[in-house]
Amino acid sequence: MLQMLPRIAKVTATMAIVCALGSVAQAGSLKWETNYEKARKQAQTEGKPMLAMFTASWCGPCQRMKSSTLSDSRVERQLDENFIPVMIDTDANPRLTRKFGVTAMPTIAVIDPVTEDAEKSRGYQGTSEFLSFMDRNKMDIQLASASMPAVEQGNGETLTNYCLVSAVEEGKLVVGEKDITATHEGFVVRFASEENKEQFEANPEKYWPQISGNCPVHLAETGKLVRGEVRWVIKYENKLYMCNSESHADQFVKSPAKFIDAVRTRLGSASSEGVRR
Prior knowledge:
The chain has about 280 residues and is α+β, with helices and mostly antiparallel strands. The chain contains twelve helices and eleven strands. It has helices spanning about 35-45, 60-65, 75-80, 95-100, 125-135, 165-170, 195-200, 205, 215-220, 245-255, 255-270, 270-275; strands at about 1-5, 25, 30-35, 50-55, 85-90, 105-110, 120, 175-185, 185-190, 235, 240. The chain has a four-stranded mixed β-sheet, sandwiched between helices. Strands 1-10-11 form a three-stranded antiparallel β-sheet. Strands 2-3 form a two-stranded antiparallel ribbon. Helix 3 (about 75-80) packs parallel to helix 5 (about 125-135) and helix 10 packs across helix 11 (about 255-270). The longest helix has 13 residues, at about 255-270.
């Protein structure tokens, strides 16, 4: 879930949330998810790609493929072991259909749940053809929810003058007291009160921003570390990301998984090339 902390991040992006009715479709003995976002979250959690079938009730080849190819035990086993299957009714999900450029049914798409890159095949597929398609398109998913590679720790500098606990718990920008501090990952952290300091020390990961407070969008786009601001902090998948400007926060809100994946790629190569400051 992506959350803008109240009264802090004044991002103007409009977020469209697709809320298809959560139910399960049946093809053979295998149950297919019909809620795309639910399937995507499950795929991220399990580290599997999604296999989506774009279909319609009036599509003859779709119904034939469901009753034959998708009911084959070999197909069911392959789907269950390597994919999160999701059935997309194109009439009920026109926005999702347009998003993936589907113009004919059936269309089968293997979708990366992080980047939403898709490998598609259009038209009816028999059992052998469909098994070959799945074999060609198995992929290892690098999860957006996985631990972010570490960046260089601080050397005694103050991360921010604002209290992280006040920002997260109250949605307020409160300047931390100079004499109420703690040290975390080499940075000095300031707090608005002793109570806030105790909260932080009891669970620092709840309040500590990813990438040691550096802006994910700036790092993804330039390869450089630039400190973000608490006023542009965004909560995504229970983790905090500090952007360094309203425009970068706006970009991150629109495509958080894309930027997180790009940051991970940048940091993954940092050991050999170095991340530039």
